[in-house]
Amino acid sequence: MSSFKYFGLLFVVILGFSGTRVLAVEQVSQVVTLAEGWNMVSTPMVLESHEFSAPESAENFDIYMLDATHSTGWATMADLGQTEFTPLYGYFINNKTDSVQILTFNYDTALDPNEKFFQRTFAEEGWYSIGVANDEYAKDQSADKVDTDNPSKILSLMTGSYDLVVDFTNADYMMNRRSVAVSDPWKMVVPIDIDSLNDFRETKGYAVYIKEGGVKYIGAQNDPAVGDVTDQEDELIVFNSTNDLDATTLLIENDSESEWHTVFVFGLDSGNSDDDIEIASIPIQIELSTSSYAGVIDAANLVIGGVTYDNFTVSDAASASPILTFDLDSATLYSGEKMEVELKLRFKALDFENQGMTVQASINNVDDIVSETIEADQISGTAVGKAHTLVAEGILVPVDGFSSEVDTLGTNDTIGEFTLEFEVTAIEGDFYITDNASTSATDGVTFTVDGTIGTGSVSASLTSSADEDTAGVFTVREGETETFTLVVTVDPQNTGTFKVALDGIWYSTNELGTGGDEYVITNASDFDTAPQSIQGS
Q1: Which of 233, 246, 298, 454 has its CA 20 to 30 A from that of 30?
Q2: What is the Cα–Cα distance from 406 to 142, expressed in whole angstroms?
Q3: Which domains does the chain have, with CATH numbers?
Q4: According to the model, what pLDDT value does residue 225 have?
Q5: Model pLDDT for residues 47-80, shown as the tens digit of each residue
Q6: What is the DSSP secondary-structure string of 22-76?
Q7: Bridge-based pairing state of the strands 445-450 and 437-438
Q8: What's the average model confidence in pLDDT over 428-434?
Q9: What CA–CA distance (Å, rounded) separates 31 from 180?
């Protein structure tokens, strides 16, 4: 078992009447990580002793077993006459210390052959908690996830004698195959589906419903493995998670702080590491299209394996590109496992000028990840999240809803026609936009002409797919998206190159479209036309 830790070697010479016998007594130990709350454990071999990382007291730990022979359905070790964890039994351990603890199994290495065979009889119908002691079929604690359909093999002699089997650790399996934490949802199956359970794994416990009394359950062990056979260099790989969010619109309050929003999900992979990876801190790069961290973000946290980490530092709160470095207090990535990391942000009330801004997170400075168990050159990879748009009450004008065309009219191409098409989405209300369009409008839309017109002329018209509840006023209803088309005609005095850019959209809650606010286009390069050469008139 590659997860064993070996503590010392004691050679004892025993003299007997038949001659001299040399017995190698070696303490072989295996550790089980106990999450906060309930855990389900078992021992695959006979123990010499065990120890908890915190004092083994009623204040710190409760230990129970399912046992139908007791009126409550539960039993303590004392109820069953046990002074030590015993093969074939499953133990519910409630870790009440409010922190992760370690349970160490010290295996007995001086057993006679007959002591390596186990048998247990279920005296009555009902629920029992069981462990796995089957060196031939059970998975080692840290073995891979390749499914071998071992539950049916391990329970083969009980075929027809049980109705249900429960794996209490199923929910955490994909992120940590060794986890013994009792977590929702459990997985309960009937005998015909027994191999749909994850492979039975040593040091985990399970539950079985026995149909009638007298059923026997057996197991056996080999000698604990001797020697360390692992020499793979440990590594940490950062990768893009398939669970990361697509680019989306986040609805932010305009008069109070927002709810928590997930903006980035990435993965950490321990690759072929033989050892667990302890991670002390992770730096997250934030990119804001406008404003600054201090102006937009109220708080941040990372969620890893259900644990929230909110202790972090900000490289420059006045910057639009700060780095948030989270202190993880030694989060553990188990060998051979992957885990996802979720970045959540809570935003301040969104100022009007920041309406439509974007936020993006990434982890590309992996050399700055701090681990207590591996060096920087053992860390690789990158992960880049999508850009998410922040909106409060008002309108949203998405970049991907913009297109443009340019053409020239008149003899010798003396007039330029610039067509800008864009979408407008109403957020948290109906909004009204007049059909006015000019370079200095206070309602409708504003635009800029790039080029020297001289005494020439500029004219514009604005149309839309939106209804006109009032003549000359377009209605964009809450949650709806309408298309607007701005056609700008440029007739310059001077010959030159010209282009047109959308500057802003005035919108109002007034059905006349007046007295509203302006949605300012801050990323002008995304809302302009291609340049067009026009001959002066």
Answers
A1: 233
A2: 64
A3: 5-220 (no CATH), 236-392 (2.60.40), 395-534 (2.60.40)
A4: 61
A5: 999 999 999 999 999 999 999 999 999 999 999 9
A6: EEEE--EEEEEEE-SEEEEE--SS-EEEEEESS--STTTEEEEEEBTTSTTSEE-
A7: parallel
A8: 92
A9: 12
